[in-house]
Backbone:
């Protein structure tokens, strides 16, 4: 769980917030002033700081600057009232992760804390550039591979990372583009500044522009205060724009201006804002085809296509599969507190023969399923085939086959009723609820471990638990 430092001189708010976060499973320390917060951080640096702007003695802005001197990559969330919004914006420009306006909604705050914890983990976590570089510590991620293609990738990262060049990462889904982006950041000259990730397809088109560029008060209905966008927040640091090939044409023009002139405009704004940020972009789309079909700007394509790194699909580096399997088995078994299984030579061959349309991500998911459903301690070729063919819900000592049969029978019964307009969503919710219940049971109710097991963020898991009434 994350360690949170809560800083506020309001006794009632501090107490309520402390109780809420403790109930959510966080380890929380509380400080009544900026001076006390600095003293606590000197004893033990927290994972996230949540701090008010206006406090007696040292104010939030001064405390923020001193905290960042000690740990530049520490995520700090600023709390402020509407009347002090300008101070919160100034704090964001000074390196705060984000700010929330009082009064705030609890789900929004918990979601923001989850994002801040993940951002801090990404910024502080190390990404090794080969399977042989350094010890295999459990909290260290790595680009795994001994193939020629991967060694070429390591060399390219080493050459490009120390520059400020825009980098475009191209490759199929699941090839590890985010991990390469993190490696570029961590080996760059900006590695003590912020690193932000924006998935251009995970945010609705109507919200993506304001998420990236921010907005002015009154820019649209509900814009009650000025908001700083992700690009402006990342000033001095690096921002990773994932799935840029799916970015709407209307936003592509604003991105082109950023790349050419180092300027943006907030939504509803009239004055250009200078920004100093390094852009790393990624896509699994055929940009050339998108340009020909008019779905991607020609000028933006040429602006992006200067330093391009192509990530090879897993089927083109089959010799890396045993190294990846051992890495994932060790890492996932540590996270889920399970013994790492042994893979027979036949199992490794079965994995090598698979085409891996989902690439490294698919391989990781298969290893995770095998850890959950194969309890023999030895993984055979047959177990691999079952995991690949039916998602790992194969008959075994743990009775997973019985559960799969019961689930299939439930689906047949529901469809046999004639179905409804929302039958698919209803069935998917039922299966999703069952998956979460099983994962919670395997993790003895620990929500953080469950989230990691399912590949979800903690706020997303909590939202689903609430949705399904688990």
Residues:
């Amino acid at each position: 769980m994350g360690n949170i430092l809560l800083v506020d001189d309001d006794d009632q708010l501090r107490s309520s917030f402390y109780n809420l976060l403790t109930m959510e499973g966080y380890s929380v320390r509380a400080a009544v002033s900026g001076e006390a917060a600095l003293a606590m951080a000197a004893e033990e640096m927290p994972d996230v700081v949540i701090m008010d702007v206006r406090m007696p003695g040292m104010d939030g802005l001064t405390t923020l600057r001193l905290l960042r001197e000690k740990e530049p990559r520490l995520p700090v969330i600023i709390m402020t009232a509407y009347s002090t919004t300008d101070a919160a914006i100034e704090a964001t420009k000074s390196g705060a992760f984000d700010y929330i306006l009082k009064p705030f909604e609890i789900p929004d705050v918990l979601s923001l804390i989850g994002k801040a914890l993940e951002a801090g983990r990404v910024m502080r976590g190390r990404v090794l550039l080969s399977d042989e570089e350094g010890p295999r510590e459990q909290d260290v991620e790595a680009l795994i591979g001994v193939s020629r293609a991967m060694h070429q990738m390591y060399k390219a990262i080493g050459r490009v990372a120390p520059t400020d060049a825009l980098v475009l990462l191209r490759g199929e889904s699941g090839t590890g583009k985010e991990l390469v982006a993190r490696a570029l950041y961590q080996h760059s000259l900006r590695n003590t500044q912020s690193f932000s990730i924006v998935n251009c397809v995970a945010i609705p088109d109507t919200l993506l522009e304001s998420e990236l560029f921010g907005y002015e008060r009154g820019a649209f209905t509900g814009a009650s205060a000025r908001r700083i966008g992700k690009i402006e927040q990342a000033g001095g640091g690096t921002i990773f724009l994932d799935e840029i090939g799916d970015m709407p044409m209307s936003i592509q023009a604003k991105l082109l201006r950023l790349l050419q002139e180092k300027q943006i405009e907030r939504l509803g704004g009239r004055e250009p804002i200078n920004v100093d940020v390094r852009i790393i972009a990624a896509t699994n789309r055929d940009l050339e085809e998108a340009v020909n079909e008019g779905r991607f700007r020609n000028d933006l394509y040429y602006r992006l296509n200067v330093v391009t790194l192509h990530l090879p699909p897993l089927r083109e580096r089959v010799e890396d599969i045993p190294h990846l399997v051992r890495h994932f088995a060790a890492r996932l078994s540590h996270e889920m507190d399970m013994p790492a299984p042994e893979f027979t030579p036949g199992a490794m061959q079965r994995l090598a023969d698979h085409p891996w349309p989902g690439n490294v991500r698919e391989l990781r998911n298969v290893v995770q399923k095998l850890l959950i459903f194969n309890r023999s301690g030895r993984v055979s070729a047959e177990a691999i085939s079952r995991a690949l063919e039916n998602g790992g819900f194969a008959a075994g000592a743990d009775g997973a086959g019985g559960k799969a049969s019961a689930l299939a029978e439930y689906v047949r019964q529901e469809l046999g009723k004639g179905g409804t307009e929302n039958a698919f969503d209803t069935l998917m919710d039922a299966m999703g609820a069952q998956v979460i219940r099983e994962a919670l049971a395997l993790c003895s109710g620990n929500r953080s471990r469950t989230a990691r097991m399912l590949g979800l963020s903690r706020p997303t898991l909590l939202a689903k638990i609430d949705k399904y009434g688990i």
In short: The longest strand covers residues 76-81. Confidence is low (pLDDT under 50) at residues 131-135, 391-405. Residues 153 and 309 are 8 Å apart (CA to CA). The radius of gyration is 24 Å.
